[in-house]
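Raw record, unedited: DUF4260 domain-containing protein
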Amino acid sequence: MNVKRIIQLEGLAVFLLAVGLYFYIGGAWWFLLVLALVPDISMVAYMYNQKVGSIVYNLFHTYVVPVMLIAIGVWLEQRLLLEIGLIWGAHIGMDRFCGFGLKYDTQFKDTHIDRM
C-alpha cells in the first residue's frame, strides 16, 4: 500500500470518527452542513500570493487547531467549541480522503500527499 492510500484511509477514519462523535453528542445536522466547508474560505488568501495562500490554507487544514478546540471544549464543557472542532476535523479528514493535502508554496497543486 502506498503512502497516499494510507493518508487517505487515515482521513476517512478521522472523518467517520468526527462525524460519528458529532452526532453522538447530539449535534444538529444543519450546523454540520453550514460549517462543513468553512475552512475552504482560507483559499481566498491565494489572491494575495502563493506563499501567504499556502500558509493560511495550511493553518486551516492542519489538525492542530480543531484538536485544541475539541480538548478545550471537553475540558471547559463548552459544547459549541466541541462541535466546531469536530466539524473542522471532519472537514480535514474528508479533504485527506479525497486526496487534498497541505500545500507547498510552489503551486496550489503541490501537496504533501501528491501533485494534484
